[in-house]
Amino acid sequence: MSKPVPHSRADYPHFLPLQTRWADNDVYGHINNAVYYFYFDTLVNRFLIDNDLLRTGSSTGTGGTSDPIGLVVETGCSYFAPLSFPDPIMAGLRVAKLGSSSVRYEIALFAGDETSAAAQGHFVHVYVDAAERRPVALSDKMRGTLSKILAP
Amino acid sequence: MSKPVPHSRADYPHFLPLQTRWADNDVYGHINNAVYYFYFDTLVNRFLIDNDLLRTGSSTGTGGTSDPIGLVVETGCSYFAPLSFPDPIMAGLRVAKLGSSSVRYEIALFAGDETSAAAQGHFVHVYVDAAERRPVALSDKMRGTLSKILAP
Amino acid sequence: MSKPVPHSRADYPHFLPLQTRWADNDVYGHINNAVYYFYFDTLVNRFLIDNDLLRTGSSTGTGGTSDPIGLVVETGCSYFAPLSFPDPIMAGLRVAKLGSSSVRYEIALFAGDETSAAAQGHFVHVYVDAAERRPVALSDKMRGTLSKILAP
Amino acid sequence: MSKPVPHSRADYPHFLPLQTRWADNDVYGHINNAVYYFYFDTLVNRFLIDNDLLRTGSSTGTGGTSDPIGLVVETGCSYFAPLSFPDPIMAGLRVAKLGSSSVRYEIALFAGDETSAAAQGHFVHVYVDAAERRPVALSDKMRGTLSKILAP
Predict the structure, then answer these.
(1) What is the ipTM of this complex?
(2) Chain C interface, mutation test: which of A27, A37, A42, most C Cβ atoms within 10 Å?
(3) pTM higher than 0.80, yes or no?
(4) Most buried in the list A4, A83, C73, C76, measured by CB within 10 Å?
């Protein structure tokens, strides 16, 4: 594996401030490696919800919807510097690749006013129909919105 | 508030061994107070599933079912002694009160071979219909099964 | 048990906005009952840290400190109405009882602009010395700060 | 990226059964992608603890130790098939690369009696001294133990 180089804020078109929690810290006083993926998850899904590309099903009492589901097929993260509660995190999001039915997101987490990422990762969604779980093409609306945050 | 007295294993009719996780420990090296409720949740729902009183909806792709839903309306826990990863926990379950549409469970967590609880708590379910979220009577089947683990 | 009555915002002197996460939602599309305790934990510890009453030990590499430790001895929560990601939560904090070595906090969680609590709970800290884990008196500084958010 | 091929049980020399929790499932009724990393974390650290290569600091009240710390510098996971509570998981562990101060673990998660992995990932530790956080050589004892689970 080649060693990844920390991205800078200028590499990202979309940001979401993330709040850390007491229990995010592990026994060493830093945020546990798995918790980063809760941040990724939240960042991606908030972007989709805020852009009307994902509906959450709480009002139906079923927790689900009949829309295509974005299955997570791959995730990864490189950790460069520790992050810790109670410090807030600034999370950057970009789309690295738009496939016919898949999206590869890249995410960078920045501590405080730092311009170099403390961690960065990726998150790949494949869209499938809820019933059969077979890949379906991204909608034009989704493709249009995601194109706006495409990495150069 | 009166100070609760630790229960013993003999006070509980049903047990489930629980596995601890690395990230359950907080910065002080002990299991975080909130994580205990994940144990309670798992213990109660495993009991219901294993006794055919709860179906999980994963095969439908919706995450839900049309059955009545057990809403959690109250939980609580008293912590007597620390628990820590990597030690396994033995969890005891009993029903303290069977209402017309509600169940009050009591849970005790035991470390290793200890006979006195390291923590104990309660967990109250109210059953509602999935659509309207109005209370519904416990089924005879549920009442029958839960009666078998009633506290004296 | 007597049924608790939802508190209003006016009952609380201190607030912290809380961010919800995608994975906070359970299979029913609402925030899991255990996750509320991560909110409580974060609210209480942020108050202590922001008022210089708790130092986190991340810079030492040990995750700990030599200060007295606030052990959580009791927690509880009543759930009145569901909360869900992606909605933000406003959390209210007050001190219900200041003992010689203990503090009972009360917490209420409000959805959006709601004035009536969606959930409320309590969280009891007993302060002990880090080495022997025996109760120690609250410092004058702590007592002074906590008095400012005492419930009427 | 090249698409990874699911490993089989025969590819792994060490196993740990993992217990799933109710709250591991997300709104779609499957285990959330981030939770897999809690499994990885637990598997790796349990292996180290069980082989006397990691001491947890709970008895000191500090949560830490003076031993070298294994910092997580990279993690990743490919998801092939869903896993769900309440089903147990069998987790396989192997060492893919032993560096001078780093270890690359590979992990595969198997559902029930399945021989093909439902998910597989990696987890890279770099060992540093607790005070300065500079890389330190793996001990002979660690190198010896980890060699026993080296991938072919």
Answers:
(1) 0.93
(2) A42
(3) yes
(4) A83
Binary contact (D29, B57; C-beta < 8 A): yes
The answer to whether residue B49 is domain-embedded is yes
DSSP state of B81: S
The C-alpha atoms of residue D27 and residue D33 are separated, in whole angstroms, by: 12
Using CB atoms, pick whichever of B1, B37, B57 lies closest to residue C37: B37
Structural tokens at position C73: 């001895």
In degrees rounded to 5, what are phi and psi of residue D103? -135, 130
Is B3 part of any domain?
Answer: no
Q: Is C144 helix (H, G, I), strand (E, B) or coil?
A: helix
For residue B23, give Cα distances in angstroms to A28, B85, C122: 11, 8, 24
Q: Which residues of C touch A38 (CB under 8 A)?
A: 21-23
pLDDT band at B67 (very low <50, low <70, confident <90, very high): confident
Residue A83 lies in a domain: yes
The total domain count for chain C is 1
Segments forming the whole domain that contains residue C41? 9-147
- Which residue from A39, A31, A11, A16 is spatially nearest to A80, judged by alpha carbons? A31
How far apart CA D81 and CA D23 sit, in angstroms, is 19
List chain A pLDDT tens, one digit each, 152 residues. Answer: 467 899 999 999 999 999 999 999 999 899 999 999 999 999 999 999 999 999 875 433 334 456 788 999 999 999 999 999 999 999 999 999 999 999 999 999 999 899 999 999 999 999 999 888 899 999 999 999 999 999 98
Query: Would D70 be classed as within a structural domain?
Result: yes
Out of C28, C63, C133, the one facing D64 most closely (by C-beta) is C63
CATH number at residue B87: 3.10.129.10
The contact set of D with B (CB < 8 A) is: 18-19, 21-23, 25-30, 38-39, 41-42, 45-46, 49-50, 56-64, 82, 84-86
Q: Which residues of A touch D27 (CB under 8 A)?
A: 56-57, 63-64
Mutate to test the interface with D, among A27, A56, A83, A132 (most CBs of D within 10 A): A27
